[in-house]
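note to self: dont lose this again. the chain is below, predicted strucutre after it. 301 aa total, dont forget to put it in the shared folder this time
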Amino acid sequence: MFPDRPTRSFLDTGVLSRLAGFPLCARRPMLGSVSGRHPSPHRGSSVEFAEYRKYVPGDDLRRLDWRAYGRSDRFFIKEFEADTNLRCCLVLDTSGSMDFGTVGLTKMEYARRIAGTLGHLALQQGDAVGLTCVADGIVRNIPPRRNPSHLMALFDVLEQAAPRGETQLVPVLHELAETVSQRALIVILSDLFVEPELLRSCFQHLRFRKHDTAIFHLLDPQELRFDFRRPMRFLDMEGGPSLFAEPTEIFERYHKAVGEYLEQLQQVVHESAVDYHRVAIDESYEQLLIRFLVGRTRSGH
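---
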């Protein structure tokens, strides 16, 4: 299905092969353009029976249930769940803070691996995939499509994405909620350096537009531990002022602030029905994606 392609630093053929048996499922009914494996809000042809309804003139007589007619002397039509394809929109945070990493790779490099692998899996099962790079606005935008050559163009943009600038994730998510014309799986890859209450309105907007939202919240282990041992200068990677501090003096306040932020964020994603995954970037992304894919399969959709 896929043409010869250049080697991508963020793609591991072994991981792609091992994940090939895991479907990427939508948790909400989708509105696609062709038949596929995902549930649709419309009725159509499928093996999944949905309901009976009374016959009305013009209905396809082949869908009459003659057994129901024999029991009730009334005509009933059998309705089935329609299946359709998925539109997967990858939203990649390319702001300056994504260039941070203390474990041999940065948050951006980790995000590329997740985005590239999910894009490959989506196209492999016949779904459309697109990419939006976000910093102080929309840096690059590739609308979802289903052909292999489109995936190669998406990988080019993914490989060239360079983290710089401030985070303007909130207005971009509001914009995407309106401009992604059909229901879609919106996959956000970011360190979410945003106030949780601002994110709440984004997630509720996406939910109102019937998008299925998944988030990979990428954090470096040092951002969680903060176990620095000597005085140092901390730089704002998104252009703010630097701060010289003694880590032991601010350790408790830092952990309290981070704990409150994560607790508030957890409450927001729970109340917004977001598929949220907090990720330390020293974790195997393959195991992370297995949990993600299996969890979606078990959700009943």
